[in-house]
């Protein structure tokens, strides 16, 4: 039986290649039958050319036209250089910070150390809106720390070239932040220079011949609010003398709500250099925060010498008790500058005006009173109800600045009426 089976296997084996060859030839014959000949040559030598169907002719013409256009097409030329509009086109890259990264320690140093900020010339900005305002005004970024890539992609791409981008955990930003609800992005910027900044056109268009001088302002929240009022009123410039809190401290930046990038701020000035930043013929007015003494002077119940609205001077130099101390031994002149007091709502903006705002604790300095005297300025009184010590510095500054804006607007309206 085994022999018979073996013989049958041997006889069937050659048939397999024949079946495979037949199947392959059959497929070729089918494809050949489907083809339509281009030319037919008869035995007599006659040649008949077969016409292609219209659709095939169109396809061939389109193919030939495409190949011809491809041969005649000039080499690919790169479009003129344009500013990349997306993150991918700009080819930006970012790093991921790991625990113990030394780059992160510089953030807290900038936040807490004013000497470091002044020495290194760097500041820290937090929040998408504040960072966007800074970039728009021309501030130069150095490093960005962010927790989500979307926060960086929201910023202008052309402003991010050459900037170190570092992705960190949100918990780390939360540890650094002073905000109740951190926004997940911080930026280290070069300390802005008011000369190189680009302030908004609307702000420049509404700028007034009105300046603000901050004297001995120590509270960050007050200074930030004052800067915000100065920008809102249209001040042309804000001067900060030595003794004021740093304008670029995080708490001041937070209270300013972007005012730092809307109005020029000149920081850390000596009183001797303040006149260099004032327009010609500027009159300096001092905000009076001792209403009772000023009201007494206005009613002729006090000496013509004038009272300095500072408890330090009032404590040691009361005119009734120590009249001899109010005279300078070297010059024989009054030690206190003679400044007339007037109500804040009377006209005091006939010339370019600068308003001095003092701190609540230390008040205005003697140098500010001397500058006001030299420029023909006065003390501006904001009357308060008897028994009230004084107004908040930020509130007093807002009242005076917007009153100055009102007076200037009224003057412009009167001039336009006279011309018509």
From TrEMBL:
InterPro entries: Alpha/beta_knot_MTases, MRM3-like_sub_bind, Ribosomal_eL30-like_sf, rRNA_Methyltransferase, SpoU_MeTrfase, SpoU_subst-bd, tRNA_m1G_MTases_N. Keywords: Methyltransferase, rRNA processing, Transferase. One of its GO terms (molecular function) is RNA binding. Belongs to the class IV-like SAM-binding methyltransferase superfamily. RNA methyltransferase TrmH family. GO terms for cellular component: cytoplasm. Gene3D superfamilies: 3.30.1330.30, 3.40.1280.10. It comes from the Eukaryota. The keyword Methyltransferase applies. Residues 49-62 have a biased composition (Basic and acidic residues). This is RNA methyltransferase-like protein 1. GO terms for biological process: methylation; rRNA processing. PANTHER family: RRNA METHYLTRANSFERASE 3 (PTHR43191), RRNA METHYLTRANSFERASE 3, MITOCHONDRIAL (PTHR43191:SF2). Residues 124-195 form the RNA 2-O ribose methyltransferase substrate binding domain. The lineage of its organism: Eukaryota, Metazoa, Chordata, Craniata, Vertebrata. Residues 49-87 are annotated as: Disordered.
């Amino acid at each position: 039986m085994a022999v018979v089976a073996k013989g049958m296997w041997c006889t069937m084996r050659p048939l397999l290649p024949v079946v495979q060859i037949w199947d392959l030839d059959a497929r070729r014959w089918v494809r050949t039958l489907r083809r339509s000949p281009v030319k037919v040559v008869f035995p007599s030598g006659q040649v008949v050319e077969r016409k292609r169907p219209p659709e095939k002719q169109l396809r061939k013409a389109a193919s030939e036209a495409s190949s011809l256009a491809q041969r005649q097409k000039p080499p690919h030329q790169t479009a003129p250089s344009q500013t990349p509009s997306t993150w991918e086109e700009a080819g930006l890259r970012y790093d991921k910070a790991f625990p113990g990264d030394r780059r992160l320690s510089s953030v807290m140093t900038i936040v807490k150390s004013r000497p470091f900020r002044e020495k290194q010339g760097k500041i820290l900005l937090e929040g998408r809106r504040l960072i966007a305002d800074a970039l728009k005004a021309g501030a130069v970024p150095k490093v960005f720390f962010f927790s989500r890539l979307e926060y960086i992609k929201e910023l202008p791409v052309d402003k991010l070239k050459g900037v170190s981008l570092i992705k960190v955990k949100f918990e780390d930003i939360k540890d650094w932040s002073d905000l109740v609800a951190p926004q997940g992005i911080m930026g280290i910027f070069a300390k802005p220079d008011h000369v190189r900044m680009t302030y908004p056109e609307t702000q420049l268009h509404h700028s007034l011949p009105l300046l603000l001088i901050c004297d001995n302002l120590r509270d960050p929240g007050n200074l930030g609010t004052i800067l915000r009022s100065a920008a809102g009123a249209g001040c042309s410039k804000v001067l900060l003398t030595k003794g004021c809190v740093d304008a670029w401290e995080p708490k001041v930046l937070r209270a300013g709500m972007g005012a730092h990038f809307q109005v020029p701020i000149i920081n850390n000035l000596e009183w001797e250099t303040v006149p260099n930043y004032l327009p010609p013929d500027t009159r300096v007015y001092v905000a009076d925060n001792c209403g009772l003494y000023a009201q007494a002077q206005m009613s002729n119940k006090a000496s013509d010498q004038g009272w300095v609205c500072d408890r330090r001077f009032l404590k040691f130099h009361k005119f009734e008790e120590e009249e001899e101390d109010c005279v300078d031994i070297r010059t024989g002149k009054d030690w206190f500058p003679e400044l007339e007091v007037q109500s804040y709502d009377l006209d005091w903006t006939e010339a370019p005006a600068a308003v001095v705002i003092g701190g609540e604790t230390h008040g205005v300095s003697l140098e500010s009173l001397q500058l006001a005297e030299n420029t023909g300025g006065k003390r501006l009184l904001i009357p308060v109800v008897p028994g009230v010590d004084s107004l908040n510095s930020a509130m007093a500054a807002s009242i005076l600045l917007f009153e100055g804006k009102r007076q200037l607007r009224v003057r412009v309206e009167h001039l336009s009426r006279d011309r018509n």
